[in-house]
C-alpha cells in the first residue's frame, strides 16, 4: 500500500498533460475555422456552461477514487434546486442554500449507508435512487418549473466574484480545496488506499466505513450546493434540471485520468477534461454542426476512456508480474561457503 502515500501521481499527471495538449489542439482548430470563438467573453460563457458539470465532477471524482460511484446526482441536482427555489420563497436566501445542501448531504449519506450495509454494488443502489428522486421532483412540481424566486436569492447566483460569474468562481475554489485534501492530507491518501485495495485498507486500520459514508455525504452536499446555485443563477428551478448530468460528470472524471476501479486520479486532470468537453460541445455549435453529435461524442469518449484505463491496468499488472519474476532469489544456508551439499529434489533429478 506504500504507493498510495506518494503525493505525486505521475500517471495522472501524464494523462492531464495529454488532455491539455488535446484542449490546445481543439482551440487551435476552432481558431482557424471560427476566429470569433477566441474571445474572452466566449470563453467565460463556456466556463459558465460547464461550471455545474464541473462541480458535480469534483464530488464524483472523489467517490470513484475511493471505489464508489453515484448515478443519482442528476436527479439529486434537480431535487435540491427545486427545494432551494421553494424555500427561498418563504425564507432568507442563505436558509434556502443551506436547506439544499442539507438535503443533498442527507440523501448522499442514505445512499452510502445502503451501499455499505447491503454490500451491493453502488451502481444498483444509486440507479434506484436516481429513479426515486426524479419521480419525487415530478410529484413535487407537477412537472412545472418553480418560478418567481425573490431577487435577493437570484442575486447570489448572478453575482460576480473576482471578475468571474459566481458558479465559475465556486468551481475554482471547490477544485482547489478538493485537490488539496486528496493530495496533501491523510484523509485523501486514505481514500486512494480504499479505492486501490479495500481489504488491505481495512487490515491497515483505515476507517473504511466512516470515510466511505463521509465521501457519499460530501458528494451529496456538493450536488446540493450546485443545485441551489443553479436555481439562484437562473431564477427558477425546472424538474428537467440535471438530465444527463451523471453521464457528463463520469465522462469528465474517467477522461481526466481517474481510474474507474479507484485508487488513482487527481482533480486538475478532471478540470481539464471538463474544459475539453465544454470547448468541443460549444465548438460544435459554433461551427454549425448538428448539436446531437455532441451526445455521440460524449458516449464515444467515455467508452474509449474506460477501455484505455482497463488496458493500462492490464499492462501495469503484466509489468509487475515480470518484475516479480526477475527479483533475485534471497540467499539461503545452502548458498553459504563451506555448506554441506543439499540432496536433489525429485523435480531436479528428472531434469538431470
Description:
- Strands 1-2 form a two-stranded antiparallel sheet.
- The protein has helices at residues 10-33, 40-65, 73-88, 93-118, 122-141, 151-157, 166-184, 186-196, 198-203, 208-234, 245-255, 267-286, 293-326, 346-351; strands at residues 160-161, 164-165.
- It has 352 residues and is mainly alpha-helical.
- The protein has a domain at 51-242.
- The chain has 14 helices and 2 strands.
- The protein is globular.
- α2 crosses α12 (267-286).
- The longest helix is centred in the last third of the chain and has 34 residues, at 293-326.
- It starts with 9 loop residues before the first helix and ends with a helix.
- Mean pLDDT is 84; it is low at 1-8 and 344-352.
Amino acid at each position: 500500500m506504500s504507493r498510495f502515500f506518494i503525493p505525486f501521481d505521475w500517471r495522472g499527471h501524464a494523462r492531464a498533460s495529454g488532455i491539455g495538449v488535446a484542449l490546445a489542439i481543439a482551440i487551435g482548430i476552432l481558431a482557424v475555422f471560427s476566429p470569433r470563438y477566441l474571445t474572452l467573453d466566449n470563453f467565460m460563457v463556456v466556463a459558465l456552461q460547464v461550471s455545474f458539470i464541473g462541480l458535480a465532477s469534483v464530488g464524483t471524482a472523489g467517490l470513484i477514487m475511493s471505489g464508489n460511484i453515484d448515478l443519482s446526482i442528476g436527479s439529486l441536482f434537480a431535487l435540491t434546486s427545486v427545494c432551494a427555489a421553494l424555500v427561498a420563497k418563504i425564507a432568507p436566501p442563505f436558509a434556502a442554500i443551506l436547506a439544499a445542501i442539507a438535503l443533498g448531504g442527507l440523501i448522499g449519506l442514505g445512499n452510502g449507508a445502503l451501499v455499505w450495509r447491503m454490500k451491493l454494488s453502488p451502481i444498483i443502489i444509486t440507479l434506484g435512487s436516481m429513479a426515486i428522486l426524479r419521480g419525487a421532483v415530478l410529484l413535487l412540481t407537477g412537472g412545472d418549473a418553480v418560478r418567481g424566486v425573490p431577487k435577493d436569492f437570484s442575486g447570489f447566483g448572478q453575482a460576480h466574484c473576482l471578475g468571474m460569474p459566481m458558479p465559475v468562481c465556486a468551481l475554482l475554489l471547490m477544485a482547489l480545496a478538493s485537490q488539496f485534501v486528496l493530495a496533501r492530507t491523510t484523509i485523501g491518501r486514505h481514500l486512494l488506499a480504499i479505492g486501490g485495495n479495500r481489504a488491505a485498507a481495512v487490515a491497515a486500520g483505515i476507517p473504511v466505513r466512516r470515510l466511505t459514508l463521509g465521501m457519499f455525504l460530501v458528494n451529496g452536499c456538493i450536488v446540493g450546493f450546485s443545485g441551489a446555485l443553479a436555481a439562484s443563477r437562473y431564477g427558477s428551478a425546472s424538474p428537467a434540471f440535471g438530465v444527463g448530468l451523471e453521464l457528463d460528470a463520469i465522462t469528465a472524471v474517467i477522461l481526466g485520468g481517474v481510474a474507474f476501479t479507484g485508487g488513482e486520479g487527481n482533480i486538475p486532470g478532471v478540470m481539464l477534461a471538463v474544459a475539453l468537453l465544454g470547448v468541443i460541445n460549444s465548438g460544435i455549435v459554433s461551427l454549425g454542426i448538428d448539436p446531437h453529435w455532441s451526445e455521440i461524442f460524449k458516449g464515444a469518449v467515455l467508452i474509449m476512456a474506460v477501455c484505455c484505463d482497463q488496458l493500462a491496468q492490464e499492462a501495469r499488472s503484466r509489468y509487475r508480474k515480470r518484475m516479480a519474476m526477475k527479483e533475485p532469489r534471497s540467499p539461503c544456508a545452502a548458498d553459504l561457503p563451506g555448506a554441506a551439499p543439499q540432496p536433489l529434489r525429485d523435480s531436479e533429478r528428472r531434469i538431470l
